[in-house]
Amino acid sequence: MKKQLILLTLFATIFFACKNDVKKTADKETTPVEEQIAVSETKITPISHATTVIEFDDTIMYLDPTGGLEAFADFENAHYVLITDIHGDHMNKETLASLDLETTTIIAPEAVAKQLSDLKVKEIIVINNGEEKSFDNFKVEAIPMYNLREEALKFHPKGRGNGYVLTIDTERIYFSGDTEDIPEMRNLKNIDKAFVCMNLPYTMTVESAADGVLAFQPKKVYPYHYRGTEGLSDVEKFKTIVNEKNTDIEVIQWNWYPNRK
């Protein structure tokens, strides 16, 4: 009898221990993904040509602001302004002067920063090709942007301007700036959204842009900065070239020039 009691007690102990282990495992497996990884939503609004507003968490960022104060009437003042190059469709001093930037940090290459010393801003942070800078809730990588064609070298020499990769939570967003199909773009990794230029004579053809995109394979690509001296580039052709070779890349066409055909 005593022996039977010992066996019964041992069985009960093993049974309840196993039951508790199963419950712990089940609780762990059913934890919602959204509770395990907190990811904020990033909202990107096209303004025109190369000008964009980026909103995430409680942060407002203007990229290459142009168009005057009225272009940003629907947005809060920028916490950050990101500028790619010295040309007026990227560094527009009239627009910058019209904005309230006293609490704004400007992030720009040295060639741009040198021309903005008279602005009333919180601070100007210089970032040059190949550098990375981390902020409270995002990271910026400065990617080279430059021309390759002999006849276009005068427009964008290597080292002056920056393209950018923004890392916001786990999302990586690339803005090409004014560039051609350069090795630094082709070698990008793990890009979720890519904004890629294509306009002649200043940057590159839709064919070159498509070839570069096919090399680094972003999840989504947005043609931007596609107005040239002969009008707007054929972004539909760009989409066709990309998707004929890779249907996994989603090409999203925004109208950056609503008043032009």
Describe this structure in words.
With 261 residues, the chain is α/β, with parallel strands linked by helices. The chain has helices spanning 2-29, 33-36, 93-98, 110-113, 183-186, 206-216, 235-245, and strands at 43-48, 51-56, 59-63, 80-82, 105-108, 123-126, 132-134, 139-145, 161-168, 171-175, 193-196, 220-223, 227-228, 231-232, 250-251. The strands form three sheets. The chain has a seven-stranded mixed sheet. It has a six-stranded mixed sheet with strand order 1-2-3-4-5-6. Strands 13-14 form a two-stranded antiparallel sheet. A hairpin with a 2-residue loop joins strand 9 and strand 10 (171-175). The longest helix has 28 residues, at 2-29. Mean pLDDT is 87; it is low at 5-39.
Write the SSE topology.
Layout: H1 2-29, H2 33-36, E1 43-48, E2 51-56, E3 59-63, E4 80-82, H3 93-98, E5 105-108, H4 110-113, E6 123-126, E7 132-134, E8 139-145, E9 161-168, E10 171-175, H5 183-186, E11 193-196, H6 206-216, E12 220-223, E13 227-228, E14 231-232, H7 235-245, E15 250-251
Parallel strand pairs: 3-4, 4-5, 5-6, 10-11, 11-12, 12-15
Antiparallel strand pairs: 1-2, 2-3, 7-8, 8-9, 9-10, 13-14
Helix pairs in contact: 6-7
